[in-house]
Amino acid sequence: MSKQDITQQLIQTIDELSDLNALQGIFHEHRDGDPLPSAVELEEIIMLSRSILFPGFFGRSSVNCETIKYQIGVNIERLQKLLYRQIMAGLCFDTDCHCPHAENTRRCLNVEAEKIVVRVIAKFPKLRTILSTDIQAAFDGDPAAANIGEVISCYPALKAVINYRLAHELALENVPLIPRMITEMAHSETGIDIHPAATIGSHFTIDHGTGVVIGATCIIGNHVKLYQGVTLGAKSFPLDKDGKPIKGIARHPILKDYVVVYANATILGRITIGKGCVIGANVWVTRDMRPQSKKYKQSKTDILDTDFEYGDGI
Amino acid sequence: MSKQDITQQLIQTIDELSDLNALQGIFHEHRDGDPLPSAVELEEIIMLSRSILFPGFFGRSSVNCETIKYQIGVNIERLQKLLYRQIMAGLCFDTDCHCPHAENTRRCLNVEAEKIVVRVIAKFPKLRTILSTDIQAAFDGDPAAANIGEVISCYPALKAVINYRLAHELALENVPLIPRMITEMAHSETGIDIHPAATIGSHFTIDHGTGVVIGATCIIGNHVKLYQGVTLGAKSFPLDKDGKPIKGIARHPILKDYVVVYANATILGRITIGKGCVIGANVWVTRDMRPQSKKYKQSKTDILDTDFEYGDGI
Amino acid sequence: MSKQDITQQLIQTIDELSDLNALQGIFHEHRDGDPLPSAVELEEIIMLSRSILFPGFFGRSSVNCETIKYQIGVNIERLQKLLYRQIMAGLCFDTDCHCPHAENTRRCLNVEAEKIVVRVIAKFPKLRTILSTDIQAAFDGDPAAANIGEVISCYPALKAVINYRLAHELALENVPLIPRMITEMAHSETGIDIHPAATIGSHFTIDHGTGVVIGATCIIGNHVKLYQGVTLGAKSFPLDKDGKPIKGIARHPILKDYVVVYANATILGRITIGKGCVIGANVWVTRDMRPQSKKYKQSKTDILDTDFEYGDGI
Amino acid sequence: MSKQDITQQLIQTIDELSDLNALQGIFHEHRDGDPLPSAVELEEIIMLSRSILFPGFFGRSSVNCETIKYQIGVNIERLQKLLYRQIMAGLCFDTDCHCPHAENTRRCLNVEAEKIVVRVIAKFPKLRTILSTDIQAAFDGDPAAANIGEVISCYPALKAVINYRLAHELALENVPLIPRMITEMAHSETGIDIHPAATIGSHFTIDHGTGVVIGATCIIGNHVKLYQGVTLGAKSFPLDKDGKPIKGIARHPILKDYVVVYANATILGRITIGKGCVIGANVWVTRDMRPQSKKYKQSKTDILDTDFEYGDGI
Amino acid sequence: MSKQDITQQLIQTIDELSDLNALQGIFHEHRDGDPLPSAVELEEIIMLSRSILFPGFFGRSSVNCETIKYQIGVNIERLQKLLYRQIMAGLCFDTDCHCPHAENTRRCLNVEAEKIVVRVIAKFPKLRTILSTDIQAAFDGDPAAANIGEVISCYPALKAVINYRLAHELALENVPLIPRMITEMAHSETGIDIHPAATIGSHFTIDHGTGVVIGATCIIGNHVKLYQGVTLGAKSFPLDKDGKPIKGIARHPILKDYVVVYANATILGRITIGKGCVIGANVWVTRDMRPQSKKYKQSKTDILDTDFEYGDGI
Amino acid sequence: MSKQDITQQLIQTIDELSDLNALQGIFHEHRDGDPLPSAVELEEIIMLSRSILFPGFFGRSSVNCETIKYQIGVNIERLQKLLYRQIMAGLCFDTDCHCPHAENTRRCLNVEAEKIVVRVIAKFPKLRTILSTDIQAAFDGDPAAANIGEVISCYPALKAVINYRLAHELALENVPLIPRMITEMAHSETGIDIHPAATIGSHFTIDHGTGVVIGATCIIGNHVKLYQGVTLGAKSFPLDKDGKPIKGIARHPILKDYVVVYANATILGRITIGKGCVIGANVWVTRDMRPQSKKYKQSKTDILDTDFEYGDGI
């Protein structure tokens, strides 16, 4: 194979790969100047958020009482800038940028993005308050935790929950794409996959966490504890007349306050697990559980459920 | 402990650690000038491949219809250079570089590496075609997916499958080490562990994915869907007369078209799961299943299998 | 929303977030000049350790027999410096740095940190010896492993075990925080969560590994093999009079030599699994097993255990 | 000095430094979202321009005949993006961004910046043509130059002249600030200070170059050669009624074709040095010189010039 | 030359280069833990200082009136940390760290360094005030300057003078080495070499600047203007009985207020140039000049000076 | 100007710039796999050389007596690798890589490059010895130098001379291009331009240095001292029949031992400045000077030289 043959072959491959027909539907064209969804910027957003929420534990520099305000001020300013760009990127992602009114649309999106940023940042004090309950719950429930600082520094679940709680605020503002990218970053880092649309109360803990899946329409109360490998998924989902899944239907479990679910258990469908229930390791549940009940063994009713058809996990 | 004592202790440790006898078998000596397997270069290879296959979704810069060819051209050139180096690194890794004919051997490897690179790059248009079916299947099967773009941008399974499909081409060319490094990088990123030697058809999806294991001799048809935590492993493997496992024997399952396997199910051994079968969460299967059959509950025959002996998962 | 309104809102949020009352207990103030626990430095420590232990497989540069001593010498020096800083960071993390005797305390910590570093580095030759048995066991037990080099380069379990064995030495020296940070870094990279306080013998292997959890008081013998998703957890843990878990009680399993545990099995409580036992996939065990026994199916006694109460996984 | 005293002192200094009165006139406030003049981006612009103009000599990657188009295509696209941002930064720098019409102004600037970018890039082929004459002249005039490649790779004057010729195009488009920043970057790199507003013909060379100064209203013909330390400056400049220098008056020399000026010579004022003149080292000239004349020694008339008053060098 | 020969030769060279005898006097051994003089940290110190003094012109991020305090606060904190380390590095550089009292000495240095940092930072408001006069003078004296912003952004002399004024404060505090490193960084960037011990008044400007040299014992008044290539050097310096130059003797010129010195002029020795004097390009001066006098031509007395012996330039 | 027009214009410019005819002679095509001359790698070569020669003064890490050998060993190994690549790049730069025998040629170059590297590195101990004399001379001649360490850390001339002495060794080995790139890097950093082919003895110093030019055929004895702005250039150079300068003719001055040349003096042509001569600031010399003579004033004979014709400065 001569040098010429190699070059010929490569040029032909480049031509095939650049053929716009072959790219139909899987090629994302951007309007010039629009910001791009950026994993690098989202990582900085996460780092900034963590260091604003728990100064001294995350972030590169030391802090002290007198000067902490400067640090938080600068971090909030940087966060505002980056969040604005990524929210714009999300809004543009969902919008036809080549229509005749693109310029006007874009201006509207600008204004909207600006407002969303301010509203989301204004929620940071509340985020810190609820995350503090998650930290306390993790410490109280783990004899291996030496102190609160170890929980904040080391526990992967906290990282996943910080990302989720931030992404959830963005999801509530209907920002497309970006919330999911943020929770997937935590998924990659920790093995914990929480859909940004899920609803989760205070004092929430996940121990170890690898393999946990929490679906989009889950509703989780306060003081709930999950172990590694737990799935809160869908049992089945209705299809439309084209055989495509219908979007937006409630299909994941409701867990009331003080529920505990042990390792690798699987809970499927829009069922309600009552207050204080305990579900053992490796069992699965497809029917409602009364408050304060326990299930350590696989029940026949769950398995033999006549209308049973597994659905999508989230 | 004086400064002198500390230095003495460190120098002695350095001597022990540099002792060539202690390094017997676990020290990789390189011939000068041979490229090294490099995680950094492999990561760039993955980034380039993703941005060539799905321009606008991966990669740092924006693209538009008119100028996409320049981007792909430059990326293919860079990919060629890096792939060549890593393929050479893989080939050298397996070759005794200190034999008398090392210089000749090396020249042969050079020529071979050059050819492999061109053949693998020439397959990129086909890789994009089959990956598009994987994307479509993920979108069609998930009510939580807002649009195709979200699937490409966020779904970890797609990242794992891109790595697998690229690594598989390198494995078909008998490149040592590098394919496994590429799939392990996806394993670390997504928790999905697909052996590069496995065979996987079109429209393949994995939901959530953390904990999935697909063994080296698996054969998976078209339109197959797996959920998180599914193992397609070996039940047992024969040993040679030295008690070492015999390499290269088919020992993992065959999944026909349209099979669905739910979360944390375990399928073991060279069995065949017929077309359209459904396997429920947390069950395990060690016997063939007829087409269109379903298994939601643990069967006794699977458990009480007389010749049963668990083997290696891959 | 005018520019002024936005700025006003941000400044108010900054004030709320900087309020020291709101930070009570979740803010880590550092004494000036004390080193900080640093993920970046710990990553370099891990990279250095890997390249000192297995030169030519990890680290950026090539090595050859004649000059390996220079590489190891320089790497040990750098390791000494970084380890010293991180050990100091760990010791300071646990110490009240604002008491009147802070200056004296700090000097003591300095001296202690210096000694710990030298002792830990002096153990590197032994670490390499035991890790070599882990590598050999992985190769002997996996028909998919082409050679020893592939095991060292690619297998995630080895990375997790290197981190664990290093962190364990630091834990034996009572360094706070840092050992856990090191094992959590492996957890994020590989999905394998080994507590640094656990005790693990030679020839230890984990196949695939995603989802494995090994608790703090586990004692694992030689030649033990685990598969992905295995939990060695606590069944229950006693609470003190305030309802908080009592720290430091033995609560995780003992696995004797030659035990094998298949995928997603769960072993809970301070029980003893005898020499040569085999535990099947997806089952769980809460009672002692006699040597050489096998358990492929869920037993009633394990499930119906009267004093049963799940506890913390680690 | 206690910790508290130190903190007190620092906080007070921060307050003083943030006092807006103290910042009057020397503080540059930006409108949110406007691009900033950026030394980092300008350096990338310079690197891109050099590698577009002389591919294979500048830039990180190798090029070959068949694929050069991809490289240039990608570089032009990146250049367009960066130039647009820096031109906008320059235009905004000169504009009152807080007036009521800021939004409209900004939109006009956008449109203008877009046009300027395209016009400047369209001149790159001509820039390459004239720079090629500069290179040829340097090679022809230097016995120490081994080949054309050495001139392109090593000669600092070429770098200074590339920057100047690019900056000059931007100056012709009335872009504020940015042209001067570009020539000052060459000044720092090479010690050659050419004002972007100067006019310079083809086949222009500067040998060694450190200390050369070429003022804003200079007009230099073709085939001119300067040596290190040459100043083409102003002799005097008229002041307005407030005693401030009047801007925009022609005050620097005109050098006709084929003029040579040796090391450290100083030529001052709006005088004309005729075609083919030679000026010796260390002399200075403040009067016109007839074509083909030479001046190796300081003349009295130049020194005793009655209306003599040195002015600004540029 | 075989591989073995090459390795042998390299090892021998390493041995020669590591021979401590050969390193006598030119090898700088550090006490463990002492900070090192660091060009990288000094560059960050310069960048921080510039962006604290002229926010919005230097530094990476945009600023606005409301939030400037956060930026300056964070920058001052970072500056404090870095300056402390570099001042310690300078103090240690001059101190015998291997004497028996090293530990005590080091503690004293620590306390001293801390105080110096606070005192130097406390002078930043005054530094900004005097630098503002330098900027105003540059703008008033240059018809090519479009506005104040261009002077701050582009003029190399301002960068050199910022470095000098900061270094001068450190020199007044008797910090060894570091002040000179800071002015040499400006020398490399701008070609302007100002000794940190020199004394320079307000409204000081240097046009173009390349090649300017200002010696250690110079005293320069207010409103002085220099052009490129000006030397303010020593004419001769007395030697001690060993033939070494005696340190610390006043040997450089005094320039009174409103002096102007044109390009490449050379002023040598402890002479006084009176108020309002003008010195022409390329002349040199070794005798006092009366106030308001001008010298455009070389005078005999300067050249034929009987006790003339050139000395060191600084 | 519509989006389409802009894209059209850019594509046309790309076509023009990629036209191979337009690139004739100014485009450097590389053979695949050949190393490229790289400013980045050369900078690392300079940093390594400086830190090998003067450990503790240059380079990032601290050193101590016991472990210095590891540092130097690792640095020499890295230097060997980088120097090999850059020497190859230089050799390939000068060679027609597209002739039929390119493969053989390349192998010869490989062997040659390998030998040159070893020979050059073997000279490092001698380089350190002679550079030590340069350092001593700078210290002895400058009352402003506090100690030897300040000279090594701060003096720009030392940096220029290190680069020159290294480049000179490469020039003696006939490596093309690379030596000149190395001295030009010092030229940019310090303003001192020394041609790598010049010959310079021991105890060589340059004070301040900006603007110094030392031509290719200069021969400089021991104990010579230059000040800033000194030119040792060519007076004229003979042309061949095509009017091009003849290469390789001795055309620059010879300075015998103990010569001192003050600021901005210019010495031109193949003349000999005798032992112990002193040349004053701003004068120029085009005729031989007898030993021990002094010249502080411009002489007529130098100016009125009948055969006078200025030539190239280097």
From TrEMBL, chains A, B, C, D, E, F:
Superkingdom, taxonomy of origin: Bacteria
Gene3D superfamilies reported in the protein's UniProt record: Hexapeptide repeat proteins (2.160.10.10), serine acetyltransferase, domain 1 (1.10.3130.10)
Catalyzed reaction equations: L-serine + acetyl-CoA = O-acetyl-L-serine + CoA
Top enzyme class: transferase
Keyword Amino-acid biosynthesis: yes
Entry keyword set: Acyltransferase, Amino-acid biosynthesis, Transferase
Coiled-coil portions: none
GO biological process: amino acid biosynthetic process
EC number: 2.3.1.30
One Pfam entry name: Hexapep
Keyword Amino-acid biosynthesis among UniProt keywords: yes
GO MF term set: serine O-acetyltransferase activity
InterPro entries, alphabetized: Hexapep, LbH_SAT, Ser_AcTrfase_N_sf, Trimer_LpxA-like_sf
Family to which the UniProt record says this protein belongs: Belongs to the transferase hexapeptide repeat family.
Full protein name: serine O-acetyltransferase
Source species: Prevotella scopos JCM 17725
Record lineage: Bacteria, Pseudomonadati, Bacteroidota, Bacteroidia, Bacteroidales
